[in-house]
Design a protein that fits this description.
The chain is α+β, with helices and mostly antiparallel strands and about 70 residues long. It is built from two helices and two strands. Helices cover about 20% and strands about 35% of the residues.
């Protein structure tokens, strides 16, 4: 049987410190993805619908999304 190769302590630390998030090209902050839900009312039938969209949020567009 093949011997199992164990990783060293330095490999474990480097993996824990690595940043896997995408960053904004303008502000450099990490982009967090949220589900943005907007309610839309129809005046003729008086019904409510929800529009769902996945949006990436950073400092550039945070005020537009969270108003």
């Amino acid at each position: 049987m093949a011997k199992r190769v164990s990783k060293g302590f330095a490999d474990k630390i480097s993996k824990a410190l690595r940043d896997y998030k995408k960053h904004c090209a303008v502000c450099g902050e990490a982009i967090e993805f949220i589900k943005h839900i907007v309610t839309v009312t129809d005046s003729t039938t008086k019904s409510i619908r929800f529009k769902e969209k996945i949006v990436g949020v950073c400092n550039c567009n945070r005020n537009e999304i969270y108003k």
